[in-house]
Structure formats: C-alpha cells, structure tokens
C-alpha cells in the first residue's frame, strides 16, 4: 500500500487539531496535547565520553583528584559532551585536553554504550566508550589538578578503587557486548 503526498495533505487538512482517539462505538475520551509538556522540558540525559586506550593488554586509567565524583578512584580518561559538539569531536577534544594526544574524530570506534540509572537519579546518564584506532603524540597527564596520576592496568587486574560503571563497561567490552543498562528496571 502506498500513500501519496496529496493524500497526506488532504488528511492533515481534515484534522488540523489533535483530537480524541476513539475506537468505533466507544465514547470519546479526553483530548491529549500533540506534544509532551512538562515544567522540566524534554528529557535530556547527560552524555559522558570515555576513551578506552589499550596497549599490549593494558588499559589506561587515571586516578581522580579534587573531584565531587569518585575522588581518589581510578577511571578512564573521560569528560562530558559540550553544546554544539558531536560525540566524536567531543571525545577527540577530551583526548587532547586530558592526555595531550591527537585523535581524528573519524578514527574512533564505539565499543560500548552504558545507559545508567543510579538510585538517587531519575533521568539517567548515557556513557559512551570509544577506542581510538590511531592517535598521535605521547600520552601524558595534562590535567594534574584533576588527575593524580595515569597508569596502565591489566584488563584482568583492575585496581580495587575503580569507578563501578567503568569496571562494568570494561567487563562488558571484554565480553563483546555493546550495550548495558544498569539500574533500569527490566
């Protein structure tokens, strides 16, 4: 079955305002708005960008410092997406800012998506984990005020004080799983 654009235009002209959805023979229900309205506005999850840099079976982690989140814990080099930025451009920016390395945004491989909901959170966060296929420069700690140190760890011997969702994502990546949804029902 195909519908022409003339048929769509005619249907739209016949129904200019949203109305009740009524089954044949049923009483009409209330009219619902055409769009979701909420005092908080549309749903927007925070987006975290993570670099998974592995060399000879070792993964690069940094120990966080002066942070309101997971201070003193080990974490992948990471940051947040900024307005007007693509996820790959943001990941390349974080690599430059935190590690002093150059990454072509087109040379990033998405390894894992973790949609996380914490007990004290109602909106969740979307954590994206990328592997740079190639990078230029030498890895160094460019943000010593935020990162106490960088260290290479064996994937099967991560430190005890690693950020829990980081450990979860690395485990899922090792199993070849591209998606996890910790904290969400079902």
From TrEMBL:
Tree of life domain: Bacteria
Domain Nudix hydrolase: start-end pairs: 42-175
Biased composition (Low complexity): 20-29
Keyword Ligase in record: no
Keyword Hydrolase found: yes
GO molecular function, one term: hydrolase activity
Disordered: annotated span: 1-38
Protein name: Nudix hydrolase domain-containing protein
Organism: Kitasatospora indigofera
Phylogenetic lineage: Bacteria, Bacillati, Actinomycetota, Actinomycetes, Kitasatosporales
